[in-house]
Amino acid sequence: MKLIFEHSIHGKACDILPSSDVPAVELPAKFARSSALNLPEVAEIDVSRHYTALSKRAHGVNCGFYPLGSCTMKYNPRIDEQIAALPQFTEIHPLAPREYTRGCDEAIALCKSLLCEITGMDAMTLQPAAGAHGEFMGLLLIKSYHTERKDFRRTKIIVPDSAHGTNPASAAMCGFTTVSIPSAPDGCVDIEALKSALSDEVAGLMLTNPNTVGLFDKQIIEITRLVHEAGGLVYYDGANLNAIMGVVRPGDMGFDVVHLNLHKTFATPHGGGGPGSGPVGCKAFLAPYLPDSVVRNPETKLQIRSFYGNFLVVIKALCYILTLGAEGIREAAQNAVLNANYLMHLLKDSFTPAYDTVCMHEFVLTLEDFKHETGVSALDVAKTMIDFGIHPPTMYFPLIVHEALMLEPTETESKETLEEAAKVLKRIYAMAHSEPETLKSAPHNAPIGRPDEVLAARQPVLKYGFENDR
Ligand SMILES: *Cc1c(COP(=O)(O)O)cnc(C)c1O
Question: Considering only CA atoms, which residue is closest to atom 3 of ligand 1?
């Protein structure tokens, strides 16, 4: 397939704008480009065809099943998009006089209060643009708290070895050192390991519950109590909230700070890099450190992003919460858990669950023995799923499970879809025994087969080679 730049023909254009009726302004030389901008010159129809062709080569929730574990790739109701597209929301400027922004201010305040209610927190900021950004913000709250109390020794953040990679990365970005603790054989926090990691140098613990292997840690009250007793705070990675919303609240489990991923749990489509939203909530004693808009509060201590964050993503979340209501939110979580358990149950006699117990919204399979038996890896199985029109599950994560495939069906999939997916996976299981070579060279029907991953990592080509760059 050609790139848009390769369709370019000098002189073609697609602007149908009237010519300017105000005098052109000469830019000062220091702001002007020294060479022409490399923009493709194409007609409108070429642009339309190019992007339509590209979209047909991508798999999305609207194309088929997308059980990408930890990412909550659920279907997002159209009504949320329609409401967020209203001009009253899209055409407002963050610096507009207050009397024009009352409705938007109210929507923001309502969304904050609903998210506080769902998480059991007292205050919320909508500024962070994603989960990892929220982690950074939340850890800064923890840091501010210890700094304000002149407790400068607390430089360590405890993270379980099953944690998402962003957790230790965010801790490092905040200047903390991370202490990794091993998980117990049941996949949950090893209380003894936690106890021996705790000290007066620990600023806090980062945890997700249900955790990254899809299990709810039943010792959570004891865990948060131990950290508090040692003078630390507890951070809730809310990426897995889809499993528990409306049922239990991080605030009631003893967490002090949470981030949410509105683009996972609350109806914003994701993939392709944005825009997302990672609100951060906290208990009242941390609220003074929360950022607010620069406009409303110039004295703010932590400004993490401009203005109000990704406002339209917030509107989608608000619309989603209001349309589902308290009952619907709870039902969504319960169905997410039911669907994951049903799919795991259907697969159990072929593939091996890493933890053979009731799961939450996702589960992890280990293909270690399967690989010894057939020579077919988790990667081969994932690639073969593409040929059957299913997006591959998350692979090789969490790191504590070998040959891991992590499936999260979400609540928006029907019983029929889950049964069809199970049938496909069982067929792949049989193929691994009868024709392993087919799996090792999959996918066969996708636009791209198997890229050379080593070469791609060592010599990434991230930019189109324009002639005048060469
Ligand atoms: C997705 C995810 C994150 C990071 O969130 P982003 O919005 O992608 O930055 C953190 N922790 C877990 C467990 C996740 O699944």
Answer: 131
Give the integer Cα–Cα distance in Å for 106 and 103.
Answer: 5
Q: Which atom of ligand 1 is nearest to the CA of 134?
A: 9
Query: Could you give the dihedral angle defined by the CA atoms of residues 461, 465, 469 and 470, in that order, rounded to the nearest 10 degrees?
Result: 90
Give the chain's radius of gyration (CA, Å): 25
| Residue 218 near residue 189, CB atoms below 8 Å | no
DSSP-derived secondary structure for 439-461: HHT--SSSSS----HHHHHHS--
318-372 pLDDT per residue, tens = 999 999 999 999 999 999 999 999 999 999 999 999 999 999 999 999 999 999 9
Q: What span, in angstroms and rounded, lies between the C-alpha atoms of 180 and 162?
A: 9
CA nearest neighbour of 134 among 247, 280, 250, 327:
280
Give how far Cα 72 sits from Cα of 57, 239, 263, Å: 21, 8, 9
- The secondary element (H helix, E strand) that includes residue 259 is strand 257-259
Q: Are 241 and 265 contacting, i.e. CB atoms less than 8 angstroms apart?
A: yes
Residue with the smallest CA separation from ligand 1 atom 6 is 131
